[in-house]
Amino acid sequence: MTKKTDQDVMRENNKKLVLKTLFNAGQTSRSSIASTIHLQKSTVSSIIRELHEDGLIEELGIGEASNAGGRRPNLIQFNYRYGYVLAFDMGARHLRYSVNYLNGEVIKKDSLRLIGNSVKDVFQMMREVISGLQAFDTMKGLLGIAVSTHAPVHENEIRYSPFLELDSFALLPALQEIVDVPIRFENEANLTAISIRDFWYYTGEEPLQNLLALNIHNGIGVGTIINEQLYYGVQGLAGEIGRSVIYKDKQVYRLEELYSEKAIMERIAKHEKKAELTVDEFAALIESKDAFVLEVVDEWITAIAQMAYNLVQYSAPEAVFLSSRSLSQFPDLLQRIFEEYKALDPLGETRIEFTQHDIYDSSLLGGVALISRQVLGLESQDLVFKK
């Protein structure tokens, strides 16, 4: 293998800077890019030519002259229709997917009810989705696939799954046999954290550099962003807070056995003498002010506030973002969580809020950002995506 020279490395770094600036800028010009990243115009123009040949540049024509006069600039922008990416979310009961342009804009999305709980069944559904994809008015078509899993992931492999039967079936090689594009697997809480970092809009604020995404669904997981980068931990096991132990009623439980959304609804379903409880039924019971349900919810709110407090004491983030299907329907419950949290830490500066996106969109958008960055070679760059 030929060793890269310092000049080659510098050229690659400059190309990434130009591409990042182009990606974030919208309409811009060669001179504006050169000024923004402090490179010579000749260097930027050379890189722009290369990106243009690759199909990553869209020419927009002549723009307006500046207030100081001078030549009118040739406007360009990143070609978001260069290709598209596909993101899957493998839930406990549904396979959700989203097809997006490289800048994050949604082309189409859907949710499919899972038939069975075997990963082989999931693969068959994925294959049908992939086979039905079109070019969607892009140059290159499908460029990459991200798969969100409700389970730990290490070196692009699902370590185990509490909801799907893996059956010793290798999902990644099976997907690689039907499509020749990069494929990334990632934990759904991690992808939620990525979606907040890359799609969140901070009106009048600097983007957050350190944040936690606390996801409370069928399990409990945390995605951690430190200095704008995702923290994985040893073998991808960071954030498995649901597996933490808690002593209650003279027994040892896993945290998610007591306070995951699944555990709470199973507890209420048992009281209601039902086999299971839907989110809508749970919400209706809260609205009806059912005494037993309100008692369970009170305990749940306290538990979530304590979880958030413990997480903040450990990592001191700027914000904790909560994600829960049922809690998201009741903003007043978030206020109660925040009030109980503040009572534990009255001087703390960390804010707590719900994710802006639909909870199912969060992991999909995180997958879109993850695989788009890989396709463009901009994994560690500061990019701003659009919905």
UniProtKB/TrEMBL annotation:
GO terms for biological process: D-xylose metabolic process. It comes from the Bacteria. Gene3D superfamilies: 3.30.420.40, Winged helix-like DNA-binding domain superfamily/Winged helix DNA-binding domain (1.10.10.10). It holds the Pfam family ROK. The keyword Nucleus does not apply. GO terms for molecular function: DNA-binding transcription factor activity. InterPro entries: ATPase_NBD, HTH_MarR-typ, ROK, WH-like_DNA-bd_sf, WH_DNA-bd_sf. This is ROK family transcriptional regulator. The lineage of its organism: Bacteria, Bacillati, Bacillota, Bacilli, Bacillales.
